[in-house]
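ENTRY TYPE: paired fold submission
RECORD: A
CONTENT: sequence, then structure tokens
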Amino acid sequence: MEREEVIEHLLNKKQDNTLVIKTGERGTHGLFKLLRESEVLDVQNDTTNVVSIWRDGGVIATLVIDPFQDDRRYNKMVHPAGGVSESYVYHFYNRVE
């Protein structure tokens, strides 16, 4: 799924906060750039590595920044834009409550 598809999915998602997106530092920067451009979605830091994505006053998703995806000891493939390739990968999970 491309970053633009992620934004489209978030714009159409209901406010139930069951979606968890896990990515590295580089993926986070790319997603934040698109969130700012959308002007509809907002972010709020919950902790250092957890960010809530908001729309219309309700949480629609949680973004988890995984430092393991940025670890050069385990991730050797370099991305053309900088950093390791795994840092740009998005993992999607549905949280069951």
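RECORD: B
CONTENT: sequence, then structure tokens
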Amino acid sequence: MNKLLRLALALFMSLNVLYADENDFKLYEVIEYKYNTNGELSYIYFYDGNGILRRSRSLYYDKRKLIRDIRNDENTNKESELYIYEYLYGKLVKRYKAEWTTHKPIRGVEAMMVEYEYNIYGNLVYKYERYNADPLIRIIGRIVPVVYKTKYEYENGIVWAETLFKDDVPQFKNKCVYDSEQKLVGVKTYKEDILRFEIKHHYDGNRLSYSTLANHPNFDAVKGKTEYEYDSSGKLIRRSKYGIAAPPQPCTPNDFIFR
């Protein structure tokens, strides 16, 4: 699920169930990451809070560039989904759900295409996610085409804000907070100029240790938490989510795999 959809879902849940006490937090998802001998992320496994495997992803590379992503839903007999990544001058410019036989973009209701646009400095400035059927609307049985767009704004080479649009209508704006060493320590999410969510990142040295999420109107009460674990070389190997956990890393536009 893309980041705008995750934030929209988080907003929906915040209006309904985010008022539980922090002590009631339960583990609801564990994500494990496996790497190949080249140090490239090769497998991602998604477990529920009971340790049952629900989804998985297999990643394949060519000359250190991710080119294929196979996604499996362990809950159903649905055929695995194939995603293809395309590059231009070394930059990722397109990702799409593909046909298994031709590797061409799939057509019909399941079609989706993500396109990336960069500025002259090589920074990602726009991401367009095009669906023939809006994933959120389909939950309630309607098929409506949609384009989600993310606009990234930079200052001194780092992202300071990102605005999320649905069919060119602004939905959310993330404002990125950094410390004196330019580590991302927080994200404030606004809707219609009202602060709705606040994510805080906590570090152990230079490694992200855990993230917390609070929401409108009480930003002193933590409503969700994500913990991060690493191997001896510093690679992320596990992410554990408790309660309604913080969305994965807003303000990191080049983190394509983890989105």
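NOTES ON RECORD B: The chain has one domain: 3-243. The domain at 3-243 is CATH 2.40.128.720 (Lipocalin).
STATUS: closed
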